[in-house]
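Ticket #4471: structure output looks truncated?

Reporter: J.K.
Steps to reproduce: submitted the chain below (228 residues) through the standard prediction queue, then opened the result file.
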Amino acid sequence: MKPFIVVHMMSSLDGRSLTDGWHLDFASDLYENTAATFKADGWICGRVTMQEISHGTDYPKGLAKGVVPRTDHFVERNAEQYAISIDPQGRVAWKSNSALKSHIVEVLTEQVADDYLAYLQSIGVSYVFGGKSEIDLNKVVQTLARELGVKKLIVEGGSHVSGAFVNAGLVDEISVLILPLVDGRSEHPSSFEVAMDKWQAPVYLKLASVEKVEHDALWLRYTKSVKA
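Returned output as attached by the reporter:
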């Protein structure tokens, strides 16, 4: 049991995905409008992106009165959409249980602090455990499908989360918006980043569609292919 998984990225012509300094006012709306066409049941981002969305800096300590069981915790099973936060250590300081009109589901490891779990419970955030010390994405997406009825997920970054999904062989479609600029800053990440010691093998793709969209951008969509 696995949802259909789409990775949706936005990059410069040379494959950079960090948008600071681009000065393209249309980029965010173009990205969100194209993402909305997938009609996904949930969208997934990593800790750094979710911290920006949460606008939180810290959570209150001392809420846990003892050891909190490391079992999945679901507050809302019938949400119109889920915001899924890949946050192994439990660092995103949410202020409520929703983000961009989506019910939040934290994806954690068992190393998370008891206080963090107690905090999530206090504000009505759902959470699932992806492993003892590392996240097993295959286990996570199966849990989301089984427990929440999620049929389609859209992975929206950052580059390490997108790379991890591709590297795990879980992605059914890759969608990339190529914006009309070159960003030569070598310190900026590419659209997909995987640590060398975890890299499995190249992922081969088949072009499903190419479309020129607004503002001279290209929208490329690929599905998985067998190596020629």
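Triage note (M.O.): checked the attachment and the full token line is present. The mean pLDDT is 94.
Status: closed, working as intended.
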